[in-house]
């Protein structure tokens, strides 16, 4: 790996580079120019390794995995890359000599918001681990011109602003014009006899879009592996524009250009409405077709002309169902372009593809209307139709007369294409993302498929990159861990378990306390600077940061806070441990209840923070525009990690792991990976409350829960709900009617009221535990010690061993 020898060399190169890039004296640079100069210097360091890595994979003919994900939520790369090449100190000192502070330069990089939440961030942690473990694996996604919206809070309400993250350019990407491919949409496709007794497909009158890749290096931690994240952008070709122009209509040509570019213009929010669905389907096929074409081309050019051995060298992973069209696209290429018969094409396809499911919420299961699908992707539709025909024939032969069975597993049904069914059928491996989630998939959501292919189902509990979420975000804690157990945990996070021995070491716990204090102060200063709010660093920092969704139950959290507020008003001498409740997260633009929950939090926050009788006891803040960078400040400062989803609904959660790694105590339900966190640390070191998943399921199946009954019998609940609609929150009558209705008229689908008392108890329990500060610190240490299991390195090793069958590649 190339490095700067020392800060002197750094400065020399910096000065030369900045002269060339900006034609300016170093003293006259603006911070953004400093950022870009350092970024290009890092690119210089890694470029040889990047070329070498790809060469080595080809020369050694190793099997490579391609991770397809409609989202990659990378976070800023400057600091993480500096850490990977082990040059952070040299850079910091060099910049300092030149009059710049690295910490002031880092925020100059725009945080690329190419994802909504957990799913996209997981993809980024996986890319990080693949490179760190020297595994041959690459990402494939879309280069959205606008990432997830920027959130502003106006009058307590979320307002969505466009995120034009590319305005200043993106120094980490390399446009690869020579690697562009064409992706075809619409037109007509039909089968006809090929003259040799078989059928062949004719596909004509289609529109083609040029897909141009932009490669971003994924730099391995302290090694010389540099993998690639390939982001595709839709472009028009001059020839295509001329062709439209030749028809004599200039407006048509403009429209054509615009429509093509629209494909990679916006990231769609997870709960998007009907509008834009056509475009979303185009995006999915665009990414899939471009990615698969480039993999096949690379394979044929560099690995083997024999397509039948494709599966020995290539694994494709689909991150949820959005890339499931990989399956029919491989079939199309194998049959139409490589001339393979259906059966051979199918064997190779299923040998190559593996699928991870990330949700069991029925409304989040992707389905496309058949007429839309047929119109946009006629050739792909023919493949799916044939697949569905063959599959249902098999199912009906096995279960004669059982139409319910056919319905349960059909890809085409009710005029819809069922993407999860396509994904399951076309994959040799199907996994959930936490034990409980994988169990629910087998027992319920995908039970019919599980009985057909039990051997395909497995679990891979999620993990997060301890490099970004501990080493980078919390260097103070990382150093403390080093001083206790040495630094081998940085490469082997499972070694963190040795920290258990320090959970009773007073000196260590005092230092841990000190580190938490420092991190709380850093966060407090940031909040003062950015939001002009003062927070008390002696209070418990209780944090809920994640996407807003009814099942994640931010509503339960804020109702408890409101209840506490009323209790304090009634009894001002009540003895409570001072609390600072922090919220962050975005709601999908069209998700009324989620947006109203944000509004409720802001209204309650204003009321509580403005009430001077409560000063020093209770503070509530909603932090605008939660993103990866803000997350990096919040996790290290947390005392309490709010993981309070309705049991059975959160597939895994990954924020829970980041909090744990930073020593926060989980306050959660037995849901997703909380179950495994609880298993790791035990009842003494986390606080569990609420219904269990089987109890929730029983209520759904057999009934027996009435939120109105609770309303009638529980005076706290009645009072809180009344206040939502009687104007006493100072926001007009009926202000929160939608939330009131969801809790009562719609019978509280997510059991907020049912779990309310249990949650209040759990909050009291947290207060008591915090008062015994020594024990609290012990719990904190136990959590950190046991967080090694939740490193994405462990997860990726399991995927590599059990699903992809790929091995680390050592440089020679
Ligand atoms: O995936 C999340 C789950 O809700 C979490 O429980 C889990 O930890 C993570 C990672 O496995 N799912 C998402 O984040 N899903 C989306 O963001 C999404 C995006 C587009 C369309 C549908 C869902």
UniProtKB/TrEMBL annotation:
The keyword Transferase applies. The modification N6-(pyridoxal phosphate)lysine is found at residue 658. GO terms for cellular component: cytoplasm. The keyword Glycosyltransferase applies. It catalyses: [(1->4)-alpha-D-glucosyl](n) + phosphate = [(1->4)-alpha-D-glucosyl](n-1) + alpha-D-glucose 1-phosphate. Pfam families: Phosphorylase. GO terms for biological process: glycogen catabolic process. NCBIfam families: P_ylase (TIGR02093). This is Alpha-1,4 glucan phosphorylase. The lineage of its organism: Bacteria, Bacillati, Bacillota, Negativicutes, Veillonellales.
């Amino acid at each position: 790996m190339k490095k700067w020898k020392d800060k002197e060399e750094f400065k020399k190169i910096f000065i030369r580079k900045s002269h060339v890039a900006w034609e300016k004296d170093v003293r006259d640079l603006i911070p953004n120019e400093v950022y870009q100069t350092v970024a290009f210097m890092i690119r210089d360091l890694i470029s040889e390794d990047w070329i070498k890595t790809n060469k080595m994979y080809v020369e050694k003919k190793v099997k490579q995995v391609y991770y397809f994900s409609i989202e990659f939520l990378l976070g800023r790369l400057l600091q993480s890359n500096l850490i990977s090449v082990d040059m952070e100190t040299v850079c910091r000192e060099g910049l300092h000599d030149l009059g710049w502070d690295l910490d002031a330069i880092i925020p100059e990089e725009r945080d690329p918001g190419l994802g909504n939440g957990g799913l996209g961030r997981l993809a980024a942690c996986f890319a990080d681990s693949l490179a760190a473990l020297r595994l041959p694996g690459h990402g494939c996604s879309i280069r959205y011109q606008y990432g997830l919206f920027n959130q502003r809070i106006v009058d307590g309400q979320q307002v969505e602003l466009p995120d034009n993250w590319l305005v200043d350019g993106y120094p980490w990407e390399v446009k690869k014009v020579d690697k562009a491919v064409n992706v075809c949409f619409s037109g007509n496709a039909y089968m006809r006899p090929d003259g040799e007794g078989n059928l062949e497909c004719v596909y004509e009158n289609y529109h083609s879009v040029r897909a141009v890749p932009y490669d971003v290096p994924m730099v391995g931690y302290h090694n010389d592996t540099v993998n690639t994240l390939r982001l595709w952008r839709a472009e028009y070709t001059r020839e295509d524009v001329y062709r439209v122009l030749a028809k004599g209509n200039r407006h048509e040509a403009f429209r054509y250009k615009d429509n093509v570019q629209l494909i990679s213009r916006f990231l769609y929010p997870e709960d998007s409405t009907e509008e834009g669905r056509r475009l979303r389907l185009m995006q999915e096929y665009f990414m899939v077709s471009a990615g698969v074409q480039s993999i096949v081309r690379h394979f044929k050019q560099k690995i083997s002309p024999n397509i039948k051995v494709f599966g020995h060298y290539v694994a494709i992973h689909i991150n949820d169902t959005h890339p499931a069209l990989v399956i029919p696209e491989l079939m199309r290429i194998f049959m139409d372009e490589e001339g393979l018969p259906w059966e051979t094409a199918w064997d190779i396809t299923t040998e190559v593809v593996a699928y991870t499911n990330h949700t069991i919420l029925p409304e989040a299961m992707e389905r496309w209307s058949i007429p839309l699908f047929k119109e946009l992707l006629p050739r792909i539709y023919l493949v799916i139709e044939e697949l569905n025909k063959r599959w249902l024939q098999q199912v009906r032969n096995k279960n004669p007369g059982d139409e319910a069975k056919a319905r349960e597993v059909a890809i085409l049904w009710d005029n819809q294409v069922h993407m999860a069914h396509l994904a399951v059928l076309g994959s040799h491996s199907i996994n959930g993302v936490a034990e409980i989630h994988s169990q629910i998939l087998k027992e319920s959501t995908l039970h019919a498929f599980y009985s057909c292919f039990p051997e395909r189902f497995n679990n891979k509990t999620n993990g997060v990159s301890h490099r970004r979420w501990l080493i980078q975000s919390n260097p103070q804690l990382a150093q403390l861990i080093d001083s206790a157990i040495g630094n081998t945990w940085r490469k082997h996070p499972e070694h963190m378990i040795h920290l258990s021995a320090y959970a009773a070491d007073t000196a260590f716990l005092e230092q841990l306390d000190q580190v938490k204090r420092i991190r709380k102060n850093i966060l407090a200063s940031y909040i003062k600077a950015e939001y002009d709010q003062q927070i008390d660093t002696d209070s418990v920092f209780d944090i809920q940061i994640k996407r807003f969704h009814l099942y994640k139950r931010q509503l339960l959290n804020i109702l408890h806070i409101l209840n506490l507020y009323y209790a304090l008003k009634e009894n001002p001498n009540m003895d409570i441990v001072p609390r600072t409740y922090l919220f962050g997260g975005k709601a999908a633009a069209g998700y009324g209840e989620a947006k109203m929950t944000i509004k409720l939090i802001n209204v309650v926050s204003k009321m509580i923070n403005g009430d001077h009788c409560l000063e020093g006891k209770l503070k509530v803040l909603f932090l605008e525009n939660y993103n990866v960078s803000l997350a990096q400040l919040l996790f290290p400062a947390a005392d309490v990690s709010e993981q309070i989803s309705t049991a059975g609904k959160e597939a895994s959660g990954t924020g829970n792991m980041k909090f744990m790694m930073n020593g926060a105590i989980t306050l959660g339900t037995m849901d997703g990976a909380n179950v495994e966190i609880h298993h790791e640390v035990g009842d003494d070191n986390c606080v569990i409350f609420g219904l269990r998943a089987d109890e929730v399921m029983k209520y759904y199946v057999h009934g027996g829960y009435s939120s109105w009954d609770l309303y009638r019998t529980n005076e706290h609940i009645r009072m809180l709900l009344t206040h939502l609609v009687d104007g006493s929150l100072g926001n007009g009558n009926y202000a929160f009617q939608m939330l009131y209705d969801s809790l009562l008229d719609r019978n509280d689908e997510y059991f907020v009221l049912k779990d309310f008392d249990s949650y209040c108890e759990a909050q009291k329990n947290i207060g008591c535990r915090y008062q015994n500060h020594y024990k609290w610190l012990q719990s904190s240490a136990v959590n950190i010690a046991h967080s090694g299991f939740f490193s994405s390195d462990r997860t990726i090793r399991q995927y590599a061993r059990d699903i992809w069958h790929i091995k680390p590649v050592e440089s020679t």
